[in-house]
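Summary for the lay section of the report: proteins are chains of building blocks that fold into shapes. Here we show the chain for Acyl-CoA synthetase (AMP-forming)/AMP-acid ligase II and then a coded description of the shape we predicted for it.
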Amino acid sequence: MSELAAAMTRSMQTATTELSVFDKETSGWHRRPWPEVHGLAEGVAAWLLDHDRPTAVGLVGEPSVEFIAAIQGAWLAGAAISILPGPVRGAELRQWASSTLARFRGIGVTAVLSQGLQLESLQDVAPVDITVEDLATAAHTNRSASGLPHADATGYAILQGTAGSTGSPKTAMLSPGAVLSNMRGLDQRFALDASIDVMCSWLPLFHDMGLACVLASTLAGMPLWLASPTAFSASPFNWLKWLSESRATFTAAPNLAFNILGKYASLVSDVDLSAMRVAINGGEPVDCEGFTKFAEAMAPFGFDAGALAPSYGLAESTCAVTLPGSGVGLNTVTVSDASGSHKYPVLGEAVPGMEVRVLPSDRYSENLDREIGEIEIRGTSMMDGYLGQAPLDRDDWFPTGDLGFFDDGGLVVCGRAKEIISIAGRNIFPTEIELIAAQVSGVRQGCVVALGTGERSARPGLVVAAEFRGENETQARTEVIQRIASVCGIVPADVVFMTPGSLPRTSSGKLRRLEVRRTLELVD
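The coded shape description reads as follows.
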């Protein structure tokens, strides 16, 4: 048994708390004590050992008690897990199922566990070399059939897909030791305590941050309240109700979720957020104004601004790279250039076991009052490498592709090296432009992409693409241009409005910037 599986077993079997999973159909919670969840995990392990003991197991579906059990069950059987998303609204199920199984096959998965309509779709098109089974059937396998289902680890713990927002997605190979180290680092940073802490999450389990919320709370023996992303999307205010009902002390979400609740806070009532002590903002750039607005709007409901925890993480490092301490809240730093001042969040110090360095470069620091460089990381949470590529040397520094610098309180991330826009001798970070454009009425927050024109024009310029839902495109386009010109000192060459939902995204919801660029170039 791997050290990760052994640690999970100890925590789950001795915990006195529960796993609670939200049921969208009844709007109620299914609750199971953690020792019972581990019993289901042993059932999954027995099923896997009776079915040729695959080295990699695929999981897909809405969160359920059996789904969480299957994660540990795969590790008890010595297998790695790979979690992929279900179909998005409007997808053709047969086509989705074929594509999903092809992705699983490409990374070595030979057994897939699912449930409901997704299970039926997968079974209908499953090839002979991939076994597809119901999660509930596997979880209730007679554990005596194969003896004690605690097998030696055969390889990795997680095969984690990367976002692919600025390039082709890859699969990070994460060892049991790396996963365990990252979860322990998160535990140490926030001093998790099962006697007082409660985790509440709706994040997708196929995303590294969503999976980390589950694993960290399981290893700490904490109560875990788990809902699905679709339940959140149906009404973002559900999140606040869940936090209040669970008396959650710990939660996490991407920046957009905090912005939505802050913007529409006037619709919030009858919730109590006074127990909250850690609210992680990660997975996408943090909007300082929006995050602050969320805290201010939730203060009447007992929310303490010290709980704000802007973070930095990568799939390649299991999840967390830097985190602030509990109670630190949102600290910001200002970077100035010829156009004015721009505010960025301080994302905390490296989690235990990890190291971060910045290699300053005149290429990025020109015209700025800060030395900005490329961020590199290494440490105990790092992947062994990408599937199908040369392994990493753990002593080597890994280039993240992100740009930033250190300030009092930790790391500051400014943007991606691939995304930086150079205009008239100035380097522009796209997030600055995107946050300004999103303030215009009708422009959808989190649905804006700023790009350099590149080959689109003989003269370098700025193009803004945004999803728009409004009546007067001409007026909105003029306002976007005026705001960007006033704040950033740059006049966009073009503002392209697109229909809601048309900007391409990764499976975790991040905008595919390079695909947007290609789309705009094809238009020309």
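Put simply, here is one thing we learned. The CA atoms of residues 107 and 285 lie 29 Å apart.
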